[in-house]
Each structure stands twice: as C-alpha cells, then as structure tokens.
Amino acid sequence: MRLCTFAACLISVSLGASAAEIAGVKLPERTKLGTCELVLNGAGLRKKLFFKVYIASLYLAEKKSSPADVLALEGPKRVSIILLRTLPAQDLVDALNEGIRENSSPGELQTVQGRFNELTATMLAVQEGKKGDVISVDWLPDAGTCVLLNGEPKGKPIPGEDVYRALLRAWLGEHPSSARLKKALLGQTN
Questions:
Q1: Rg (Cα) of the chain, in Å, rounded?
Q2: Exposed (0-12), middle (13-18) or buried (19+): which is 19, by Cβ within 10 Å?
Q3: Cα(28)–Cα(49) distance, rounded to whole angstroms?
Q4: Mean pLDDT (the chain, rounded)
C-alpha cells in the first residue's frame, strides 16, 4: 500500500487555467496530487533584500485563510517553489532550518529532528537548485512528506504529518520567513 501511495507522489498534474501570475510566472488554479484535486490557496514572491528568490504556492483540498485552519486540514497538501535564481541547496536547507526553529517549540523540534534530518539530506543531495526549477514538497497521508524536483521524486517519503506541519509553519507560523509571503499563501492579497 505504501509503495502504491508513493507512486501517487509521482503523479502530479496541473489542471485548468492559470489562477495567478507572479513575477511573470503563471500558476495553475488546480493541481492533482495522487487521486485528489487541490486548489491554489495562495501564492507569493519571496524576496531577500532586493532580490527575487522564489515564488511559493500553497495547494490544499479546500481554501483556508488562517494558519491554524491550514495546519488542521486533513488530506494531501503541496507547497510548490519556483526558483527565480540559482541557489545552493544548503541555502534552502538553512532557511528551512531557521524557519522551523523559529516556529516550533523545543518539544516539537526534538520530535521531528531525526526525520527532518532525512529530509534535509534529500535536499542537500540535489546540491543546487537552478533558476526555473520547481521544488514540490507534498504531504500524502498514506506515504508522508515527498520532495520532487521538476516532477522527479528525490529521496524517500518521510513519515509523520508533524514534519510537514513544521515545514508549513516556516512560512505560516508566528515568525514566518516573510510576513508578506505568509499573507499571500493564505490568500490574503494586499
């Protein structure tokens, strides 16, 4: 069953017309993850200083406008990141580590640390994300957290929704990487 669900990680199809355009990149309104159709909850641009770093989009089974509702929502989820510049994988991992540390209690960190180390090892194996690459981090209840680079799976699924929730809090928590991006992912346009 788990192998079958992992195969669902591989089946990812964009559906429908574009719902948003950010920095000249059109994002689909819907995407299919496994057997579920997800809708674009929100998307935004991540900048660091004056540089456009990436576009992040959040896909859910139904739209939610609060972090608590997103975190409580059951079923598949996707965070898609489109790189707008070439970055070493270490930079992405460092940013995720910081976001998770800033938005998790010591107990939560201790619980997810070993599995999060597996996830970061998968990301570091990529070595570099190139401009235009699409990194998808999916949650599939029967498989776990799956990482895809340009639609190709990387590593193995990481079990436990607590890992995926910790990742989501890096963007949606009390101390997000970007308050503007947090609002955009929640569908709260400026």
A1: 15
A2: middle
A3: 28
A4: 89
The tokens for 133 are 């690459």
pTM of the model: 0.88
What DSSP string runs through 58-112?
Answer: EEESS---SHHHHHH--S-EEEEEEESS-EEHHHHHHHHHHHHHHTS-HHHHHHH
Per DSSP, the three-state class of 166 is helix
**3-state percent breakdown (helix, strand, coil) of the chain, nearest 5:** 35, 40, 25
Pick the CATH number of 2-185 from 3.30.70.890, 3.50.70.10, 3.60.140.10, 2.40.50.140: 3.50.70.10
* Per-residue model confidence as pLDDT tens digits over 141-150: 999 999 999 9
Domain boundaries, the chain: 2-185
How many angstroms separate the CA atoms of 22 and 165, rounded? 25
**CB burial of residue 5 (10 Å; 0-12, 13-18, 19+):** middle
